[in-house]
């Protein structure tokens, strides 16, 4: 497996420059992971499959889904891609590399875990700030246009929010100067996580069922259903920041109340 992976990496570094891999390669990886992981929730909504696991009974119209997709493509091409191109010199300066050998797995995994923890801390405070009155009205309300989220709405946001919350995603790699392989793995896992959190489905096999402190779709769906001043659940991946600062209280109260009434949360 390692030799196969290194052979594939050798092909990439032989046929493409570091700039091409770090910018356009990263963009292609992101788009592929994002849309492949996000589109299934659209088909689930339209078909009604696994409806017993859907958190909200309301479904989005095809028109609303297409509006989301069109805006996402525009945001990604005209905001995300230019940012990747413009930030390349900074990442090179901080130590980003793509040459062989690939980093050992203990290094890769330790860096990815660090990125998740750091991103969650930064995201919590940035997200909480976006729920102040002015920033919510002028910036974050775009993301909350979909009170019933589906996978692709995870990156449906105002360009200013993309820059603001995206800072937490790139901060860890910028500090550690990782191998490009590690950066791609981190980006892919982060995309899959946020798509799952916005999927609108709480499956028995969801990571939140077996990973301690993992938020998941049920935890984040509450954030989209209630008023911005009462939503809480500001974390991106884990739940400990909301627990520490008491911003998950309304969620647990609502869950206990609906459980007593015999309703599905």
TrEMBL record:
Membrane topology: Multi-pass membrane protein
Subcellular location: Endoplasmic reticulum membrane
Gene Ontology terms for molecular function: aldehyde oxygenase (deformylating) activity; iron ion binding; oxidoreductase activity
Location of the Fatty acid hydroxylase domain: 113-247
Keywords (A to Z) from UniProt: Endoplasmic reticulum, Lyase, Membrane, Transmembrane, Transmembrane helix
One Gene Ontology term, aspect cellular component: endoplasmic reticulum membrane
Record-linked InterPro entries: Fatty_acid_hydroxylase (IPR006694), Sterol_Desaturase_Related (IPR050307)
Transmembrane segments: 20-44, 64-85, 105-125
Family recorded in the similarity comment: Belongs to the sterol desaturase family.
One matching Pfam family: FA_hydroxylase
Catalytic reaction(s) noted: a long-chain fatty aldehyde + 2 NADPH + O2 + H(+) = a long-chain alkane + formate + 2 NADP(+) + H2O
Protein name as annotated: aldehyde oxygenase (deformylating)
Enzyme Commission number, as recorded: 4.1.99.5
Keyword S-adenosyl-L-methionine among record annotations: no
Species this protein is from: Asparagus officinalis (Garden asparagus)
A GO BP entry: lipid biosynthetic process
